[in-house]
Each structure stands twice: as structure tokens, then as C-alpha cells.
Predict the structure.
Amino acid sequence: MKTIFSTLTLFGIIILFFTGCYVKKTIPSTSGSAPPEEPPEHPAFYQKSESSYYYFTEAQMQKNRGNLDKAIHFLEKAIEIDSASSFLKRELAFIYLQQKKNAKALKTVKGIIDGDPNNIEALIMYGKIKQKLKEIADAKKAYEQVIFLDPKQKDVYLILGGLYMDEDNFDKASGIYDQLIQQFPEYYVGHFFMGKIHAKKGKTIEAEKEFEKAIELEPRLDEARFELIELYKSTGREEKVIQTYKKILKGSPHDIRAAMTLGHLYHKKGMRGASEKLFTDLGRRSVSDSEIIRKLAQLYLDQKKYDAAIIILNGMLKGASDSSDIHYLQGIAFDRKGDKETALIHLKKVRSTSKFYQDAAVHMAFIYDDQGKLSEAIRLLEDVNQRVTPEPELLFYLGTFYEEAEKLQKAVDVLEQGLVKDPDSVRILFRLGVVYDKLKRKEDSMEAMRKVIRVDPKNANALNYLGYSYADLGQNLGEAEKLIKEALKYKPDDGYITDSLGWVYFKKGLFQKALKFLEKAIHLVPDDPIILEHLGDTYLEIGSKLKALEYYQQSLKMKKKDKKDIEKKIQDLKNSGI
């Protein structure tokens, strides 16, 4: 479930809890010096302990310089002198949190609470640490104690209510937000979240009332209106939906989401003039406002609402007929709908000056490849490579198409060119390693895989490829086993990696162990010719010639090329008289 508490960011509400400044008293920030309960400049502070203040000041200077270990050292010195200071201990806990030393921070704060169970600042900090540690029950208890001690802790209600919402405990959340509203009846956010809770519980009348109250309190903020729209949709009140969108656009004429959705609603109702007006305006604005394109992709393409996206984009083209951005998105939408030809028409209209030019070219190349026009895909990307300074991504795809066309040296050339531009590109390194292998440049291939692993130690494919390469060569079999087992940690049900481990054991002469993994591999990847051949080799070694012949014959059926070796194995078995 999406965390309802995250919605707060939409209103620009800063929950000071997360910065350390979250109560009525002034709490020092973690990013600079700030006054404690008794400010350093207060004479009483000097009278209490001048050296304690000295160490505190040194700690603050070290913290501001980023020397957190030294800051901790000076704070500990200050605490030795002034062991009763909860302020100094909180400062120490803040730094522990900055260092992600949650256990030490928790111990420090717990020490404050043990000495002063009603210390609100420490209780809030304790709750924060418990949240970080995923110990939510303890966090909730701490926040509940804060509210009991000081019912005016506005932001703590929001945190606690959010925690209950995360658990789908709407009754508890409702109780918390009800308390918040009682304490702060004119607080917009309290009514907003109460409306969300009622909506979740199916209480549409109560939800509508709370959202309307939120709008009354903060008419400039539209989130409650958007929630009302969802409520109206769920109850089939389409006219209310339209009216609410119109209100949003009246107050915020450039609201992209409202304009797109209202325009689409108008289109569905046959109100083409009204929809065209909104879409044309969006098209004109999109020339200078890239957020419109981003928002459309987010709201429609990412949500797989391709028909709606196409309607909106067609309308936008009337306001910006030459827009490469719009044509690019339209091409994507048509392609995902399966209309490849119309997709190509739009993608071809993306100009070379557009930020989407190379992406559009790659997309067209994939369409050509899907249509069986590999040579056309290659010619297109070659042309783009000559026209503009190519991005590593374009070079990667051109290399893969060369590889598919078995133009292996050309594949190496462009992939190496891409690697110059992006030396740590895992996918370029991996692909280059595969092509080197196809060119019988085995050591170069393995070195490429080693580089992939250095950049991405959890890359299961590279771990497996290198391990299998060792096994196939009969080299470093211990290292091969280690690499492939590591790969299986990340992809435990991968048939190809399982086959690799079986092949290592075969090379080690552990044929029964090899058989166990190879049988599992063929179960995971039925009809793979290599795994079938490995099974045949293993059965042959343990003396099961009929089984070996059976698997060799299955492998031969599956192989599309390089059949001579397997044909020889079959013939040798037949010649042996079985």
C-alpha cells in the first residue's frame, strides 16, 4: 500500500521531526550550532561549567567541518563534566544518527529517558530511531506518550497517524486524526487525512465533508479537490468530477494533470471543442514547458493508458504540430498499442536537434528488427552515428544489432567506442565480453566479465559467464564453483546458472553431483540444446549409453547450427553397438 503519510509532501508541509526541530523548545539542528535549553551566551551556562561549554563549542566546530568522530569526542568530554545535560546527550545522539550508528544513538537517548521519562524531545527522537530500526510498535508507544504529555505536538499526530495508516489500521488512525482536529480545528491537514481515512473505510459522505472542510480552510491547495474527484468517480458523479476539475483550473489555470484529465473527459462526452481548446493550449505550452511531456508520460504511458495518451497527444499536436517531443511520445504510445507503422510515422518526425532523437532512432531500429528488417535497423543507427555525437546507449544497441547480424568485428568496434564514453557501463562491458567470446578471444572475454564484476559485484550473469568460461576451459575449477554459487545467490532458480554449476562438477569428475544439477537445470529450462548435451555427456561418463543417446538426439533437434560435434557423438554411440 502506498504510504498515505507521504502525501504530506504535496502540500509543502515540512515535518520538522525529520530534521531534529520538532517541539516547542528550540532543538539544535544537526547542520549547525544552535542554542540549548540554556543558550551558551547565558551567564548561567558559564557559571555551571565553563569547560563543558568549551567542549560543546569545539564539538560544534568539528561537526560543521564534517569531522563527526572528533565532534563525538568533544561531546563525550562535555558530558563527562556535565552528566545531567540532556541537551548535550541529544546532540551526541544526533551525530550518531548522522553516522547511521542507530544503536549508539538509541542507547544515548534511552539514557536521557531513563533519567527523565517525560522528556518530550528525547521521546520524539527515540520514536524516530525506532522507526529507522523498523521497530514500529516501540515508535508508536513513544509518540503516544508525547501526545499524552503535550497534546499540542501537531506534527507527532501526523507521524503517528501515518504509521497506523501504513498498517491499514484505519480505526486507530481515525482516532489520532480526530484528536488532532480537536486540538487544531482549523488545521487543513487534519481534515484532509480524516477525509482520506473515511474514503478508505467507504464512508463517502463523511469523507466528502472533511475534504470540503479542508478546501474551505486552504482554498489555494488542490489536493483535497483531487481526492474529492476520486470520491465522485467512485460514486459515478461525473458532472461533479467535471465541475471540480474546472474549479481547479480556475484557481490554477496551468495545472497539467487537471487540464489533461478534463480534456479527456470532454473528449469522451463528445465535447470536442472544449477538449481541443485544452489540448491545443497544452501543446503550445509544451514547447517551453518540458514538465507537460514528463507529466503525460507519467500519468498515461507509465500507467499503460495508451488510448488516452494518443487522444491527448493528437490534440496537443494541433498546438505544436512540429513538436519532436510530442511525436516521440506518440510513437511510443502507438508502438505499445501494437500499431508499429503509425509509431514509425511519428518517430521519423523527431528532429536531430531533439533530446529524444537518439532514443527515437533506437526505438525505430527495434521496430525494424521485430519486422525482420535487421539490415534496415543497422542502416538507421549507422546513419544516426554519423549525423550526431552518439550516446553510449545508441552505440550499445548498434553493437547488439551487429552481433545479431554476425558482423562481430563491427560489433566490437562500436562497443569499444561506447566503452570509451562510459568505461563503467556494465551492459556494454558484458556485451563486449560475449562478442569477444564469439570471436574466440577467450581471455579478452573473461577480462571483460571480470571488469563487470568489479563494477557490479552482484551481477549474476557476469559471475556465471566467467565461472562457466573457466569450467569450459577446465581451468580454475574451484574459482569457477565459487563464482557460479555466488551467481545462484542472486538468481537461485536460473536454469542456465544451475547448468553451469553442474558443468563445473562434471569437469571435476563429480558426475553424480553434476547429474543432480543438470537434471534440475533441464527442468527449469526445458529443451535447451546445451543443457541436453551436458546431460548426455554426464550419462555417458556414468555408463548410461542409452540415456546419453536419448539426450544427444534431443539436443540435435533443438540445435539450429554448430551440429557437427553432437552428430559425431551420436554416431560414435551408434557405432559402439548400442
